[in-house]
From TrEMBL:
This is Histidinol dehydrogenase. Keywords: Amino-acid biosynthesis, Histidine biosynthesis, Metal-binding, NAD, Oxidoreductase, Zinc. The keyword Cell membrane does not apply. Its EC number is 1.1.1.23. GO terms for biological process: L-histidine biosynthetic process. Substrate binds at S234, Q256, H259, H324, D357, E411, H416. Zn(2+) binds at Q256, H259, D357, H416. Pathway: Amino-acid biosynthesis; L-histidine biosynthesis; L-histidine from 5-phospho-alpha-D-ribose 1-diphosphate: step 9/9. Belongs to the histidinol dehydrogenase family. Coiled coil: none annotated. It catalyses: L-histidinol + 2 NAD(+) + H2O = L-histidine + 2 NADH + 3 H(+). InterPro entries: Ald_DH/histidinol_DH, Histidinol_DH_CS, Histidinol_DH_monofunct, Hstdl_DH. One of its GO terms (molecular function) is zinc ion binding.
Amino acid sequence: MNTIKFPPKQDWAQILKRPTQSYNDLEQSVKSIFKDIQSHGDKAIQKYTEMFDGVKISNSVVSSNEFEAASDLVSTGLKEAIKLAYNNIYKFHEAQKSNNLAKVETQPGVICWQAKKPIDSVGLYIPGGSAPLFSSILMLAIPAKIAGCKTITLATPPQKDGSIHPAILYTAHLCGIKTVVKVGGIQAIAGFTFGTDSIPKAYKIFGPGNQYVTVAKQVATTFDVAIDMPAGPSELLVMADETAKPSFVASDLLSQAEHGKDSQVILVSTDNSFIEAVKLEIEAQIEVLPRVEIAEAAISNSKFILVNSFNEAAELINNYAPEHFIVATKDNNFFIDHIHNAGSVFIGDFTPESAGDYASGTNHTLPTNAYAKQYSGVNLDAFMKTITYQEINQTGIKNIGVAVELMAEAEGLQAHKNAMSKRLEAIKESVKS
Ligand SMILES: NC(=O)c1ccc[n+]([C@@H]2O[C@H](COP(=O)([O-])OP(=O)(O)OC[C@H]3O[C@@H](n4cnc5c(N)ncnc54)[C@H](O)[C@@H]3O)[C@@H](O)[C@H]2O)c1
Ligand SMILES: N[C@H](CO)Cc1c[nH]c[nH+]1
Ligand SMILES: [Zn+2]
């Protein structure tokens, strides 16, 4: 756990490199699995489920009996916790309904407006390789339902005995999801991409996952499918100074380190003794974690960076573009103003990142691997398309007709011009008669 002093810019890419395999590393193997599933559907999916999840499954669709049995296996306390989270996530996403869709009369007689329509068929991927992330169902199914998506299919990897973790089935049922398939990884994303006998084709695929899932989603976009964003191995950057509490910061860093060996956590600070205090706390706290081995591997990918000023910190953080950004300093507003590349921001000593992972209301499906530079996390709009409308009357044609004719002619597109000229002539004729 060495501390790096604010490095020169030319070293940032190397120092801040994510420990995951890249698109190029996995592209060929992912594409060959896609090809097989495109040709052989469920049969090929079964083969890859056996290969990667070590279980043979002949019918991957979860039955109503399985849904019912799962509910009895979830404790009342956990059900109540999931309902609390459900309500907060519902409240936050419902508030995202946009009412800024007024009709605009751009010129007299020319009316333009927009309306949002749900995406008909969506595929939701719920990770289940190393932990059953039932919280991700709330993050995806709630906005999909609010948006009004008709076909919502959930895919998640089976456990070794071929079952799905009861909390996943309970949460799916709570969210009103009827179709759950026991398929994970690349094979699930390929199933959504092409559609099979048991998996409806999705127009857009959502959800986090490991590096295989993330690259598979990127490959899916080379077919006719959209994705939310690349949401791969979890990452967290904490900016803290001497006013923060080392034990809190260490617990936050470990909370994301325990996700996977390819997770990455970073501490940036203006205070070297604070960094040392956090390191001691990490050593003490990591020992007793059940996932100590995973967390240790992730911590070994992680960085402690000493900067001279908040300005240096802001420049470095915007360059790294973390999935999650916690700020605990004497001037958090400086960072709220200056950080423009981050998936989700957590402010102050009492806003742990786990709050957003589960229950505060914000969405935890967020861009990783510096994609926060160009992508947003999942929100209500991600499940909708915006259609534009226009209606023009004869006054409107008179107002914009000649401009359209001139522009069409200048582009050399005579048929475009004709479509307008015919209307203008008809208006002239009707005035004459
Ligand atoms: N960015 C986000 O918003 C976000 C949110 C939640 C979780 N996450 C991340 O999601 C990830 C979940 O990963 P996970 O592994 O636990 O579950 P997962 O469901 O994403 O992946 C498990 C699947 O990977 C496939 N797989 C495993 N090894 C393979 C191999 N060698 N070749 C091909 N396929 C293989 C298997 O089919 C398996 O079912 C973690 O990295 C976590 O950090 C990210
Ligand atoms: N931190 C993850 C997003 O990177 C989300 C999650 C789910 N469960 C726990 N955490
Ligand atoms: Zn998490």
